[in-house]
Amino acid sequence: GAMMDNRFATALVIACVLSLISTIYMAASIGTDFWYEYHTLSTAENVSEAGRSIWEEFVSKDADEKTYTDALFRCNGTVGLWRRCITVPKNSHWYSPPETDMTTNCISFSLSDQFVEKYIEPGNHNSGTDLNRTYLWRLQFLLPFVSIGLMCFGALIGLCACACRSLYPAIATGILHFLAGLCTLGLVGCYVAGIELLHRKLPLPEDVRGEFGWSFCLACVSAPLQFMAAALFIWAARTNRKEFTLLKAYRVA
């Protein structure tokens, strides 16, 4: 029996470690601003004269999607789930040399920004609601929290399981991790689709390169970790149950 128990213990420990790492990755990716990055190849000279006005438009309460996306294009912008950032010269005086210190300034999406409608033509509210983009955006905002919630709930059940010295709840923990993995995959899918659709409406200028950043990669890595943890939890619980039944049958015989 000891040999078997070791195998389950090992599987469960590995599952818990994977679960912990994926939770940390998820939290880090929600909290950072590098889901998507724009690299502007010709900035310094054209930003310094317009820097101040771009910045004021970018932070204003009524900056619409087109306004802030144009600013992201022009100023090496980065976008997270919660914030958008641009890099502008520290002091935008017309006489300062173009290679002035650059500073990165960020502004958060408010809760109403997260749920506001997206328009068919970004920035033009007469063009009607773009339902696809509106719901993709809302999902990419909600799914990571659902994912983390499921994993934390799974962890609670797991703790109870340890306290009761029973492996049955490990199946529930496994299923919750599997659902969390699906949510994370959904989040990644929604984000990619949303960016694709936005760039169809607002194509990148000639001298701007866009790419998914490391925050996005953390979420991508988090999903397989959640599935692996789920598989280990379920495997340990099921195999252990089988062997337990066999052992009982053997004792009776």
UniProtKB/TrEMBL annotation:
Coiled-coil regions, chain positions: none
Keywords, in A-Z order: Membrane, Transmembrane, Transmembrane helix
GO cellular component, one term: membrane
Subcellular location per the Swiss-Prot or TrEMBL entry: Membrane
Main location: membrane
Gene3D superfamilies registered for this protein in UniProt: 1.20.140.150
Protein name: CLDN1 protein
Chain ranges passing through the membrane: 141-163, 175-194, 214-237
Gene name linked to the record: Cldnd1
Pfam families on file: Claudin_2
InterPro entries: CLDN1, PMP22/EMP/MP20/Claudin
Membrane topology: Multi-pass membrane protein
